[in-house]
């Protein structure tokens, strides 16, 4: 069953959907370096695909509509490695506010922001709290790989790393499934990076560029990736988001 997509509909159809308590899914990602083997669109592409997969599974319990993807986010930490667009916090804050206000003004009451980029997480949590009170809006932020059931399944499926990391086994597998023509198959065999970020310990924070933690821009093991694994990971992520949307507790005040 295909997903409802905002950009493929006409204004009268969208007005009708707003009256049916349709959930609007807003995918947000980033355009940033993903090592020597993956395209810079990874985060936006995966957020979109997970959103479409979740929306297509939502019927018959209700309707979920996928809005156009916000392809740019907070990615200053990737700038040293090239290929990256980034926004400052005030601009990102304004963009998310304006998009959600537009959705709310059209009569939609529930929004799920499906996030595909780690650098967006903290800002989105703050913005969602503001929008909840400012617009009397039921708004949810979901970073798909952090959902407990999804994270557990990812760890069981992945062979050489845990969870998503960056341009590693998980993201490379999903890209090999979705857009194999955009993956440099030769480069990925030599692109393995550290298995984890070397961050400061609990209770402290210092900004670090990604390049200082991984010179090639990779965290994880892309050499362990293959397309069939990517299909399974995407299915797990889409089902996880769909379960979240269907759960009445998700939307209760």
Could you name the CATH homologous superfamily? Answer: Creatininase
- What fraction of the residues are assigned to beta strands by DSSP? 5-15%
CATH class (first level) name: Alpha Beta
Shape: globular
CATH architecture: 3-Layer(aba) Sandwich
How helix-rich are the residues, as a percent range? Answer: 40-55%
Structural class: alpha/beta
Q: Numbering strands along the chain, what is their spatial order in the largest sheet?
A: 1-3-2-4-5
Radius of gyration: 18 Å
Number of helical elements: 10
CATH topology: Rossmann fold
Q: Domains counted in the coordinates: how many?
A: 1
Mean pLDDT: 95
Low-confidence stretches: none
Distance between the termini: 31 Å
Order of helices and strands: EHEHEHEHEHHHHHH
């Amino acid at each position: 069953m295909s997903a409802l997509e905002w950009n493929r509909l006409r204004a009268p159809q969208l007005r009708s959907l707003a009256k049916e308590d349709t959930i609007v899914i807003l995918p947000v990602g980033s355009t940033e370096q993903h090592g020597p083997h993956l395209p810079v669109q990874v985060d936006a592409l995966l957020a979109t695909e997970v959103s479409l997969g979740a929306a297509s599974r939502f019927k018959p319990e209700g309707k979920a509509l996928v809005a156009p993807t916000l392809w740019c986010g907070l990615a200053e930490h990737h700038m040293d490695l090239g290929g990256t667009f980034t926004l400052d916090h005030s601009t990102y804050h304004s963009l998310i506010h304006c998009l959600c206000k537009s959705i709310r003004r059209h009569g939609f009451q529930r929004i799920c922001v499906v996030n595909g980029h780690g650098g967006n997480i903290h800002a989105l949590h703050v913005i969602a709290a503001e929008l909840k009170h400012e617009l009397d809006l039921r708004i949810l932020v979901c970073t798909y790989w952090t959902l407990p059931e999804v994270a557990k399944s990812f760890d069981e499926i992945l062979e050489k790393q845990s969870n998503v990391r960056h341009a590693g086994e998980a993201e490379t597998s999903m890209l090999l499934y979705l857009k194999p023509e955009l993956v440099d198959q030769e480069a990925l065999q030599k692109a393995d990076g550290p298995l984890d970020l070397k961050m400061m310990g609990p209770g402290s924070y210092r900004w670090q560029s990604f390049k200082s933690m991984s010179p090639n821009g990779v965290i994880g093991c892309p050499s362990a990736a293959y397309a069939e694994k990517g299909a399974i990971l995407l299915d797990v992520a889409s089902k996880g988001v769909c379960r979240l949307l269907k759960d009445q507790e998700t939307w209760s005040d």
